[in-house]
Amino acid sequence: MTDGSLLVLATQYSFAASFAAMAAGTLYFLMERANLTPDYSPVASLAAMVSFVAAINYYAMKDMVGMTGMASDLASFPTDFRYVDWLITTPLLLAMLPVLLGGKRFDTGLMARLMAADIGMIAIGYVGEVSINASGGGTMLSWWCLLGSMVLWFYILYELFAGIGRASAGADDGLVQALGLLRSFIVIGWLVYPLGYIVAALDLSDSLLVARELIYCVADVINKVGFGMVAVAAAKRMSARQWQAGQIA
Ligand code: RET
């Protein structure tokens, strides 16, 4: 890995840019709360919590990776920070879906199953990632963890298709559409993370490991701020309906 290369510099800078994006997202979600009814304002609160936690983590990470152009600074940055961030933020992201369903459609069991499976997915992945880092590549343990983590992710997707599908039958068209879009963040946007794990386990090249960090930064902003924006837009639509229906003064 060449020091001062564009890839190293862009990756280092992407941490600072992600911090700014997460901070801006937090501000946006907090301001949007004012445009939501009490039934739907928790969607914006959850989005703000997610981006605020990420902003704090990125603030710390950007200082660890520096802006020096030195590849060694990136190599010494602890991936543990990402896992702590995911452990806190991914259950909150998933919680937005049942909350968006709102009112009588809200299903506590569905929310609990989604959050439990998600925490398990990240925790098992962490055990595997630690083992990869300790040995500089994939280990037997890390491949088993990949499998366990993937099974939980598929379970989450199953719940999202079956559970949300069931609960949203007959709901507002725009809401159903938004839920479908949010689900595709979790299918496509989240795919980046197991792929990044596999890149580390295969230990193909140092450049790929640096690129992995850059891609994680971009994916995190899309999956947190982008996801939150779609969720808040749907919450605004549902709030407008409630106001129109005169359910809220
Ligand atoms: C791990 C381990 C390998 C298998 C799988 C994983 C999934 C990680 C995911 C992370 C999502 C992070 C998000 C961050 C948002 O900013 C733990 C890498 C399946 C899905 C959405």
UniProtKB/TrEMBL annotation:
Compartmental location: Membrane
Transmembrane helix is among the record's keywords: yes
Keywords, in A-Z order: Chromophore, Membrane, Photoreceptor protein, Receptor, Retinal protein, Sensory transduction, Transmembrane, Transmembrane helix
InterPro entries: Arc/bac/fun_rhodopsins, Rhodopsin_retinal_BS
Source species, domain of life: Bacteria
Pfam families noted in UniProt: Bac_rhodopsin
Transmembrane segment boundaries: 12-31, 43-61, 81-103, 110-128, 140-162, 174-193, 213-235
Membrane topology summary: Multi-pass membrane protein
UniProt keyword annotation of Transmembrane helix present: yes
Family: Belongs to the archaeal/bacterial/fungal opsin family.
Protein's name according to its UniProt entry: Rhodopsin
Organism: Rhodovibrio sodomensis
